[in-house]
């Protein structure tokens, strides 16, 4: 199929882009790896596409004030191959699971957040780390915690007249450990279940994805951080948070079992890594 007719706009500034969005019936085009298939299948019919790929300042990738700042036009492959990504190990672990290399060469980090697919990796990473999403609208700039940004499947806290201009990930501190894993039918497919975890000392945070309409974040601190000690906790957690309906690829119970196993394994790994960091 082909997309329905639309107008195309390439603004010269962020303010101009916001003005076009405020006019209504417009969608932002950055990488296009999620938007273009939606247009081709006519699941979406915006009147105008606002191309932000060349807007000044949106291609920035810098570490500042203890945060990794990723602009809205920064490609996933750029982040994956950058020296800066070493400061946020969880992104580095997750990025190879995001689609295929060819898709990451065009897709953007902020685009994945804005698309808000329930099975997407980067919204879960952002939620796990307590990242912040930066928005610009007619009323100026505002910052939304990543855990509050995705409000449902393909739905976010961004207004129709707001542009995601960047995301800020906190840089890893000494003594932190991380884990990431997912199960998909084939590499590059959407995850049937996945986890992103962060551990520091006795504190542990887990974000589950692919099992609900948005990333589900839970405190999973435990006194016995071995995989055997974690399994009862993660199994109970999985049955609590998995609320997606079953489909041809896996039932709700199957996804819960996957999540419980992945969570225990990655939490145990993150605890080991954190302990080694402290020892070192």
Walkthrough of the structure:
The strands form 4 sheets. A 5-stranded antiparallel sheet has the order 4-5-10-6-7. A 4-stranded antiparallel sheet has the order 11-12-13-14. The chain has 10 helices and 14 strands. It is an alpha+beta fold and 280 residues long. Keywords: FAD, Flavoprotein, Oxidoreductase. It holds the Pfam family FAD_binding_5. InterPro entries: CO_DH_flav_C (IPR005107), CO_DH_flav_C_dom_sf (IPR036683), Diverse_Substr_Oxidored (IPR051312), FAD-bd_PCMH (IPR016166), FAD-bd_PCMH-like_sf (IPR036318), FAD-bd_PCMH_sub1 (IPR016167), FAD-bd_PCMH_sub2 (IPR016169), Mopterin_DH_FAD-bd (IPR002346).
The CATH first-level class of the largest domain comes to Alpha Beta
Please give the CATH architecture of the largest domain: 2-Layer Sandwich
The CATH topology name of the largest domain reads: Uridine Diphospho-n-acetylenolpyruvylglucosamine Reductase, domain 3
State the shape. globular
Q: Flag low-confidence runs.
A: none
Strand content: 25-35%
Instruction: Please give the largest β-sheet.
Output: 5 strands, antiparallel
Helices and strands, with pairings:
Blueprint: E1 7-9, H1 14-22, E2 26-29, H2 35-40, E3 48-51, E4 61-64, E5 67-71, H3 76-81, H4 89-94, H5 101-104, H6 109-115, H7 121-129, E6 132-137, E7 140-145, H8 146-149, E8 150-152, E9 155-156, E10 163-170, E11 176-183, E12 193-200, E13 203-209, E14 216-219, H9 227-241, H10 252-279
Parallel strand pairs: 1-3, 2-3
Antiparallel strand pairs: 4-5, 5-10, 6-7, 6-10, 8-9, 11-12, 12-13, 13-14
Helix pairs in contact: 9-10
């Amino acid at each position: 199929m082909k997309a329905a007719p639309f107008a195309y706009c390439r603004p010269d500034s962020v303010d101009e882009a916001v003005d076009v969005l405020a006019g209504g019936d417009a969608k932002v085009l950055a990488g296009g790896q999620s938007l273009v298939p939606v247009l081709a299948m006519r699941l979406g019919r915006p009147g105008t596409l606002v191309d932000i790929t060349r807007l000044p300042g949106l291609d920035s990738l810098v570490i500042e004030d203890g945060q990794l700042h990723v602009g809205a036009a920064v490609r996933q492959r750029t982040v994956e191959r950058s020296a800066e990504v070493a400061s946020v190990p969880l992104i580095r672990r997750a990025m190879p699971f995001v689609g295929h290399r060819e898709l990451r060469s065009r897709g953007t980090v902020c685009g994945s957040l804005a698309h808000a697919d329930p099975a997407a990796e980067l919204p879960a990473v952002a939620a796990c780390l307590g990242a912040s999403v930066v928005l610009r609208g007619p009323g100026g700039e505002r910052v939304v915690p990543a855990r509050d940004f995705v409000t449902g499947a393909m739905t976010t806290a961004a207004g129709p007249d707001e542009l995601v201009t960047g995301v800020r990930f906190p840089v890893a501190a000494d003594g932190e450990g991380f884990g990431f894993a997912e199960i998909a039918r084939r590499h590059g497919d959407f995850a049937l279940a996945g986890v992103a975890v962060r551990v520091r000392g006795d504190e542990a945070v887990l974000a589950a994805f692919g099992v609900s309409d948005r990333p589900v974040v839970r405190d999973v601190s435990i006194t016995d951080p071995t995989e055997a000690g974690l399994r009862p906790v993660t199994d109970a957690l999985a049955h609590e948070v998995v609320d997606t309906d079953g489909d041809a690829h896996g039932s709700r119970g199957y996804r819960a079992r996957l999540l419980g196993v992945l969570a225990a394994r990655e939490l145990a790994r993150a605890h080991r890594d954190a302990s080694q960091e402290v020892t070192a």
